[in-house]
Backbone:
């Protein structure tokens, strides 16, 4: 198998065929000139580059034998055929049996199900990803509903909390303050050159678990595995990154197994400079069309980073924009169950941060689009409560900028339940990161005001959910339409089975990103988020509605992602932001055809 290896690790015993010296030197020099920019000398032959250092000498080699078995991208384990075992020097390195991929999948799923501790399943999945990438994605795609809670929320939250203890092999790129001034060089250490999506965190707001510093790496790794499994983006073009500027988490700072910088978080100029260097280096190394997804930054940085880079880079904040799009989709779908239009509803949020205000703004934009009323007017039916109570105009002077548009005229209200009584919302959305805040009194208040209250408990992981599915259905006496950020099992209440939906941005970002990639989009616009919501809402079937669901099951997610991608791409073409021309006629088919397929390939 031809793979790109570091020149320094080439050994005659592990690499049987090395390309000719001339070609090797040429490849070594290729594209890896120092990033002064300007000169694109692929083979290090121009006078203009003769004084530049080769930062990373790469070489092509042909993997066989143990090297092949240890290369997760090409390893097939026991699925190597007799012919492949002969041709690739594998004889004796594998036991005699040949298992096809389906049998491997069956065996692995059987083994995974033996683990009773979710974290052990997570670790087994990560081991598989590092051992046999195609098998990892095949079992994730084929068993998505069972494995999503393992590689994603809630288990990924626990994995991040214990990342230092369970750390085996590094996944993704770590860029810390130590690398300030050298970020481009760090990017060049990553072996893949054709990167299409980067998910980056600084670890400060990991799910609802707070500051986990460098251990937040589990989130970009998990999100990108969903980009591939759910959205079909090739794993080789995905790059997880953690920016380590320290942590204010004392527990981690005192933990001997903590893997990050042992210092308090850098802020202000020092933080901004590292982030800016990173953003410039990404564009320089991967070009204009690489998608940078910001994930789990604290809100005091998240809004500013998005605003600062949205006009110069292809950036997307999943917590603000992806969450908004998924919730709007659920609301649009719910109109089949509660009737009326979006404009007929009144919305109350517990939590006015990235998720809360992001969702609020997209709802306001959609109502404005539907009714032609100005967005300043459509915001009036949307209310938010933060840790200090209802956001009202008398608080304007002390509010963060992203809360100001929601400061409506009203007397101050401290408690959520009192806000419900005063505002009389039809929809209650939890985005506070604080568990158990939708108390019995809260749910009962919603049920007393509405025949079918819509209750979304978005906070992750499960421990931070505002209420459980069982609480929502029982306390509302079966009236609630309920969905949550982390999954809950179906609930039986008075002889009826209620199936809760999962309102999680995982429905949106994989298809959204694919849509940007296939159209060659260069910027993200709100209209694309609305297009994604509409595509997702349209995938909810009558059968789903009959069960009280406002989201389709994840089992169809690849098809759903293709429709989301097609709608997003169509919008990119319409807005003149697409660069892949001509526009494919059938965007759904085109999106499907671009999706990564994890089946093993035959080796000659
Ligand atoms: N389901 C999904 O797809 C997604 C879920 N989430 C989840 O949403 C949660 C919040 O994320 P995010 O918006 O980014 O976080 P932020 O930190 O940006 O916002 C949290 C908000 O909750 C408020 N808050 C905190 N404690 C309380 C309380 N006791 N009562 C009322 N309000 C409170 C904060 O108030 P103040 O401003 O006063 O501090 C702040 O406004 C997390 O758990 C995250 O996992 C996030 C993205 C996607
Ligand atoms: C789902 C997600 O992005 C979050 O909880 O932060
Ligand atoms: Mg997130």
Residues:
């Amino acid at each position: 198998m031809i793979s790109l290896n570091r020149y320094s690790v080439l050994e005659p015993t592990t690499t049987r065929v090395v390309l000719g010296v001339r070609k090797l030197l040429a490849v070594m020099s290729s594209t890896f000139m120092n990033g002064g920019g300007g000169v694109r000398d692929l083979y290090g032959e121009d006078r203009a580059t003769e004084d530049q250092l080769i930062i990373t000498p790469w070489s092509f080699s042909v993997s066989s034998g143990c090297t092949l078995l240890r290369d997760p991208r090409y390893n097939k384990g026991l699925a190597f055929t007799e012919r492949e075992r002969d041709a690739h020097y594998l004889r004796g390195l594998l036991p005699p049996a040949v298992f096809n991929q389906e049998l491997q999948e069956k065996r692995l799923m059987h083994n995974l199900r033996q683990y009773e501790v979710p974290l052990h399943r997570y670790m087994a999945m990560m081991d598989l990803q590092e051992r046999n990438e195609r098998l990892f994605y095949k079992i994730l795609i084929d068993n998505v509903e069972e494995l999503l809670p393992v590689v994603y929320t809630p288990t990924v939250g626990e994995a991040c909390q214990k990342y230092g203890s369970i750390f085996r092999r590094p996944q993704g790129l770590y860029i810390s303050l130590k690398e300030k001034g050298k970020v481009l060089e760090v990017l060049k250490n990553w072996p893949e050159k054709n990167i299409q999506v980067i998910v980056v965190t600084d670890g400060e707001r990991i799910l609802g678990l707070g500051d986990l510093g460098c251990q937040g790496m589990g989130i970009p790794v998990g999100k990108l595995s969903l980009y591939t499994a759910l959205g079909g983006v090739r794993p080789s073009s995905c790059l997880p990154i953690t920016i380590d500027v320290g942590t204010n988490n004392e527990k981690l700072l005192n933990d001997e197994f903590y893997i990050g910088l042992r210092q308090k978080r850098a802020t202000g100029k020092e933080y901004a400079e590292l982030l800016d260097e990173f953003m410039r280096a990404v564009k320089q190394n991967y070009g204009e069309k690489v998608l940078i997804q910001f994930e789990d930054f604290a809100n005091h940085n998240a809004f500013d980073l998005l605003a600062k880079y949205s006009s110069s880079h292809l950036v997307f904040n999943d917590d603000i924009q992806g969450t908004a799009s998924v919730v709007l989709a659920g609301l649009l779908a719910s109109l089949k169950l509660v009737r009326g239009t979006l404009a007929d509803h009144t919305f109350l949020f517990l939590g006015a941060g990235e998720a809360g205000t992001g969702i609020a703004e997209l709802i306001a934009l959609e109502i404005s689009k539907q009714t032609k009323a100005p967005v300043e007017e459509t915001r009036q039916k949307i209310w938010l409560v933060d840790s200090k109570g209802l956001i009202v105009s008398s608080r304007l002077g002390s509010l963060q900028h992203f809360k100001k548009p929601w400061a409506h005229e009203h007397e101050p209200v401290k408690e959520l339940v009192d806000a419900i009584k005063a505002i009389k919302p039809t929809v209650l959305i939890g985005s506070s990161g604080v568990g158990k805040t939708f108390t019995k009194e809260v749910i009962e208040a919603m049920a007393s005001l509405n025949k079918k209250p819509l209750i979304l408990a978005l906070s992750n992981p499960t421990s931070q959910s505002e209420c459980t599915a069982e609480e929502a259905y029982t306390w509302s006496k079966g009236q609630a339409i309920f969905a949550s950020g982390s999954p809950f099992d179906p609930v039986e209440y008075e002889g009826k089975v209620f199936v809760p939906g999962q309102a999680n941005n995982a429905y949106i970002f994989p298809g959204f990103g694919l849509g940007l990639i296939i159209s060659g989009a260069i910027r993200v616009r709100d209209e694309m988020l609305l297009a994604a919501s509409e595509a997702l809402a349209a995938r909810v079937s009558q059968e789903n509605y009959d069960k009280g669901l406002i989201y389709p099951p994840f089992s169809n997610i690849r098809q759903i992602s293709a429709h989301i991608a097609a709608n997003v791409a169509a919008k990119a073409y319409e807005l003149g932001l697409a660069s892949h021309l001509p526009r494919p006629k059938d965007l759904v088919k085109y999106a499907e055809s671009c999706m990564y397929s994890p089946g093993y390939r035959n080796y000659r």
Q: What stands out?
A: The chain is about 40% helix and 10% strand. The first strand starts at residue 2 and ends at 6. The two ends are 9 Å apart (CA to CA). Residues 295-296, 318-319 surround magnesium ion (ligand 3) (CB under 6 Å).
